[in-house]
Design brief:
Blueprint lengths: L5 H10 L4 H36 L9 E3 L2 E3 L4 H40 L2
Antiparallel strand pairs: 1-2
Helix pairs in contact: 2-3
């Protein structure tokens, strides 16, 4: 994340956008970014937990790992395929949908703010 002015700069950038018609342009883009971020986050949790469980000293060949309310076996291919598909889908959504959507929304808002003036 690029934030030369820190978190306060990010908050300050949203100050002028808090008007309802401008905020309405940002919310769909932020929703796409949040959804993609959640997919990447859950996939990361899955990978970390599986890698830890698989590499721990207490791991047995028939061991299962309970994650998200489901028992998974690290020895099988399906959990790893689910992780790979989740990571690919989340990163694709983030890079090809979320970032362009947020950038486009901010470009529209910037143009609207320039037309309105200070």
């Amino acid at each position: 994340m690029f934030a030369p002015a820190g978190i306060a700069g990010i908050v300050f950038a949203h100050r002028r956008v808090l008007r309802p018609r401008l905020l309405a342009r940002l919310l769909p883009a932020y929703a796409i970014a949040a959804l993609a971020g959640v997919v990447v986050l859950l996939t990361g949790i899955f990978i970390i937990e599986f890698t830890y469980g698989w590499s721990s000293q207490s791991y047995a060949a028939d061991a299962t790992i309970a994650l998200f309310g489901v028992s998974w076996s690290p020895a099988g291919p399906w959990p790893w395929l689910v992780m790979a598909a989740g990571a690919a889908a989340g990163l694709y959504a983030l890079l090809h949908h979320a970032i362009p959507a947020v950038r486009g929304a901010w470009d529209e808002i910037g143009a609207a703010l320039e037309r309105e003036g200070p």
